[in-house]
Amino acid sequence: MIKIGIVGGTGYTGVELLRILATHPQAQLTAITSRKEDGVPVAQMYPSLRGRVDLAFSSPDKANLNACDVVFFATPHGVAMAQARELLDNGVKVIDLAADFRMQDVAQFEKWYGMEHSCKDLLSEAVYGLPELNREKIKKARLIGNPGCYPTTMQLGFAPLLKAGVIDAGNLIADCKSGVSGAGRKAEIGILFSETSDSFKAYGVAGHRHTPETIEQLQTMTDKEVSLLFTPHLVPMIRGMHSTLYAQLNQDISNEALQALFEDAYKDEQFIDVMPFGSHPETRSTRASNMLRIALHRPGNGKHVVVLVVQDNLVKGASGQAVQCMNIMFGLAEETGLQHVPINP
Amino acid sequence: MIKIGIVGGTGYTGVELLRILATHPQAQLTAITSRKEDGVPVAQMYPSLRGRVDLAFSSPDKANLNACDVVFFATPHGVAMAQARELLDNGVKVIDLAADFRMQDVAQFEKWYGMEHSCKDLLSEAVYGLPELNREKIKKARLIGNPGCYPTTMQLGFAPLLKAGVIDAGNLIADCKSGVSGAGRKAEIGILFSETSDSFKAYGVAGHRHTPETIEQLQTMTDKEVSLLFTPHLVPMIRGMHSTLYAQLNQDISNEALQALFEDAYKDEQFIDVMPFGSHPETRSTRASNMLRIALHRPGNGKHVVVLVVQDNLVKGASGQAVQCMNIMFGLAEETGLQHVPINP
Amino acid sequence: MIKIGIVGGTGYTGVELLRILATHPQAQLTAITSRKEDGVPVAQMYPSLRGRVDLAFSSPDKANLNACDVVFFATPHGVAMAQARELLDNGVKVIDLAADFRMQDVAQFEKWYGMEHSCKDLLSEAVYGLPELNREKIKKARLIGNPGCYPTTMQLGFAPLLKAGVIDAGNLIADCKSGVSGAGRKAEIGILFSETSDSFKAYGVAGHRHTPETIEQLQTMTDKEVSLLFTPHLVPMIRGMHSTLYAQLNQDISNEALQALFEDAYKDEQFIDVMPFGSHPETRSTRASNMLRIALHRPGNGKHVVVLVVQDNLVKGASGQAVQCMNIMFGLAEETGLQHVPINP
Amino acid sequence: MIKIGIVGGTGYTGVELLRILATHPQAQLTAITSRKEDGVPVAQMYPSLRGRVDLAFSSPDKANLNACDVVFFATPHGVAMAQARELLDNGVKVIDLAADFRMQDVAQFEKWYGMEHSCKDLLSEAVYGLPELNREKIKKARLIGNPGCYPTTMQLGFAPLLKAGVIDAGNLIADCKSGVSGAGRKAEIGILFSETSDSFKAYGVAGHRHTPETIEQLQTMTDKEVSLLFTPHLVPMIRGMHSTLYAQLNQDISNEALQALFEDAYKDEQFIDVMPFGSHPETRSTRASNMLRIALHRPGNGKHVVVLVVQDNLVKGASGQAVQCMNIMFGLAEETGLQHVPINP
């Protein structure tokens, strides 16, 4: 059994970790911290976990995280970087669901997250936790920067095209849509039911933190300079993410060959489903599961390829992906504890 | 492995059976019938099942249901009664998710369902499939009438009070609310998104089929004549059912004693959660799981007890309960394949 | 033109007042206060009002409310009672959308609202602003306590029955359901989209402030002692309220006679629609309008009458009713500025 | 008063016309046809119209449409073309909300709508009913092809840029999102609440009928050849449309100059709101009103301009625009009957 600690388990990625780990056959949840909820049973805050999670939240100073095998940070940006060093020194692996260890470019991090990076020396050993693109490094990693939700879809959707060199890397557009849970569990008026239900909007159009993270990764796939225009939108649904990716083909290539690029790239992946060419995946086809689905289109058989990518932002886009990384790091079968069938309807 | 057939798998209870059985360790899905979808892979109709269910729908005449150990009917009312006899004669157990075998009173059935009962002789051996109230009979049953969704909540909510004789059986009120999936997967204008979203209404107030079914069961719990006023409502949510039950106390009884009635009645039940007195359960705390949660209230410490009951109408209210019955009938641990943690958020 | 001030215009009843008054032919909006938003144009906070409302919020000390003809308080409970005296002394009429002037029973107010009433002497002249039941007093009023949303539906639904003496006043049950906007525009986790969408729950079952308000009013309609069991629920929709009222008949009475009680009571009312006996009104049939619809049922032709009442909680349940009161107080046609057709779909 | 007929008033554009016309001071609704609902009072089908619309549906043969001043077709494609000739010959103006008279290119029409055009000779006098771009022609028109919902947003969003020649006409991308009401009021499983709620998807990515309609209009604005990639998506909300438009700048131009292009183009328009540069309009800011809002972005001050356009698909995207055309055709002030303030929340 893997002894697991969770720092900051009161948000949505935290409770989703708890849901997944509650039925993970190798997981032994040993500590979950929350400064504000010290002593409160987890199941009191989240009645969905009554009878399934017996632990109470404990304040960070009381929890003995150093005795864990792995600690997940489901915290705001900036927390993991303050605590990772000590944990690693005690032989504890660290998986950060926030942004602290996602980007190698410290200047970009500091610009977009508005804080100094207090743990730069660990960055070089931090591994970007996207298993389908980075599995070998994850196997040996002690410290994982778990990808952002949007970047997961953009990378997995553009990767086969970029690696094959069939699109113009300098002109990528990603029009992405997320459910409201992506904004977190915070007392903010902008994400109230009455403010977001029955409405739709874009946000962060001028610039969003997930752009530099994604570009840094996409750049590793090609010699050409990557330029990405990323536009996030808010959908009145709880979970789910849909990315509509636009790329211009730089050569004559058949639809079959495009489809083959994706099927080859992901043929051994359990959590990536390349659907038949021309499909329209719905976000709900991945709801509450670790699946990500991809479908290709070639409107008017023209110069653009359109890639549709869907996932559950809290699972493959966050906590499921983190558990997938944990499984890899500990030599478990990658799908262990992650075989939830999507909920439909 | 239990060889399983599903008749009529294209509706919501059908696809929910498929979701549950896909990870049930003892279930071997061998046939699923649909006249209209003959030959269509299940996963084509339900992309959420891609990679998880390999079967195709087959027309009823082609499917060899007689070779199954158990057949579920996820069909409209009236189908199971036409086919149950032959299956039973071939040693196949039958679980009907429709109403054909729920009620012993044929006249009531025929009045409320508007059809003649074509298989009356089997009714006497049909067992009402509510495990928490009828477990011993289910163990030996060949033929199960799986309870309606509303009746499940009303029975489990009133039972401890009725059995203890502390309420007036002649004056029960059940104000119940269901998500839209309870209306099924039918091409009807009344359940379109644009017709039901952002709105709320009652329906069937003058009389609903679940009233006689519930009264027949409640009557077995008391010598007094049961009278029940049941009002269903439609909630703009996909899944979930909330029943607000009102009963008048006929004696002086403390809140602690009331609470104890419920805790005692359900202390060994894995799928019934008696919450602390005065709790307000949310339907989402049971979402996509087989849990049913109950909380008691005593407004103003007056003469009424109010029982709040929540469940997922498609799971404990339908397909989960059916699998729970199957587990009991085949001697499996009752929770086998039913340990999904509710989805939150 | 009526010069109008609004105190606390940043909440949902405030912005709804602004929407209604923007097309009211006799309304001249002259001041709107908000301590926090001083100087911010209303239309910046509410883009829906761009081009329709030119005013900016001003801090209370800067706004010259004494120059208004009427001031609406769309504030938390306790604000109007502190300012009403001065306004009245300056000849300004006051309509409070909060609870300060709804109840004559100070002890009940202080118990349920947890604050001392600082303006008890004005209570005796305060008029309860439910026009259909209190029109004559509203005509002459200087100070209005605008009814709560739930109480509006309960009073209008029970009144014809109570006044005719055909029901048992001592055993009223009101199972009520409200859209989330009823909880206001506050930064609270409990009303986030991800917490309330796709779920349903009861709240305040043990006791709710709207019970004493409603009982105080219902008691004026009958000599018998009124007892009311009121259970509020939260529906995942923005606007709308549905009250399901249960009463026991104390005499033999035909359905036609019951229906006639309502049709007679409301035959001259423009904002009350008594639907055909046995109808199931949807909340959306009143969306964004000042209409309230009522339908009667007699399940099984038994001893209970069930009254279904729907309204938009922000209009007839709050701001629309307040404007209706204003129209009456200033001698305008009651429907002035309130003829919005409900939005469907 | 203008005598008005509506053909096919049972769909969403029909009932929205009824809502708008019910308070239009110059409109006299004289006939509304529906083959299936002959004799049924409109208010019985749409309780939201109780007390506001007294008419009953009549079958087309009984309705004397020739006595109207104008007839709206709120019908499926193909109906208006069969009846327009006779109406025009009788001096009745015609406004078709379907596609019959939107496109001059018959071949494109027949390809995309899968039917022969039975009234080609009238096409040359048909006027495309987008007032902000075509007002002078609408003034004199007898026959209007009312624009599609998506095309309205794409044209109004691209027009100032295309006309000024500052973008590459050959590389336009429109990523558009619509509420479910855009799919109409049809008994189809794909638009059930349980199928569309809490999910998001693209559709028609390979090609959609609104592309040729839009290109035909955009082409009139520039000498360059227009190429448009249009991707529609379905949002789980009733009303609302959000178009995210991407264009590449072909010259050095400041953000101020871009903004000025839009402010100048629409400075006299009552129904177009050019928001401050960098705004994020929400669809709800136009809910149930005839407003369309536009905001410009220049991500990273790069080569792309991103135009965000929102409207209510049933108002400015359909019935409101049709009434706006009617007002122009009959010499009324353009805003007559269209001054609804958007509903918020």
Automatic annotation (TrEMBL), chains A, B, C, D:
Catalytic activity, EC: 1.2.1.38
Q: What NCBIfam families does the record tag this protein with?
A: argC
The reply to whether Transport figures as a keyword in the UniProt entry is no
Q: Which organism is it from?
A: Undibacterium fentianense
Tell me which residues this entry annotates as catalytic: 149
Tell me the function of this protein: Catalyzes the NADPH-dependent reduction of N-acetyl-5-glutamyl phosphate to yield N-acetyl-L-glutamate 5-semialdehyde.
- Taxonomically, the superkingdom here is Bacteria
Which pathway does UniProt place it in? Amino-acid biosynthesis; L-arginine biosynthesis; N(2)-acetyl-L-ornithine from L-glutamate: step 3/4
Tell me the GO molecular function terms: N-acetyl-gamma-glutamyl-phosphate reductase activity; NAD binding; NADP+ binding
This enzyme catalyses: N-acetyl-L-glutamate 5-semialdehyde + phosphate + NADP(+) = N-acetyl-L-glutamyl 5-phosphate + NADPH + H(+)
User: What family name appears in the similarity comment?
Assistant: Belongs to the NAGSA dehydrogenase family. Type 1 subfamily.
| Enzyme's top EC category | oxidoreductase
Which Gene Ontology biological process is one annotated for this entry? L-arginine biosynthetic process
| Location of this chain's protein in the cell | Cytoplasm
Instruction: Describe the location of the Semialdehyde dehydrogenase NAD-binding domain by residue ranges.
Output: 3-141
Residue ranges crossing the lipid bilayer per the database entry: none
A GO CC annotation given for this chain: cytoplasm
The record, for Pfam families, names: Semialdhyde_dh (PF01118), Semialdhyde_dhC_1 (PF22698)
The protein's name = N-acetyl-gamma-glutamyl-phosphate reductase
**InterPro entries attached to this UniProt entry:** AGPR, AGPR_AS, AGPR_dimerisation_dom, AGPR_type-1, NAD(P)-bd_dom_sf, Semialdehyde_DH_NAD-bd
Keywords of this protein's UniProt record, alphabetized?
Amino-acid biosynthesis, Arginine biosynthesis, Cytoplasm, NADP, Oxidoreductase
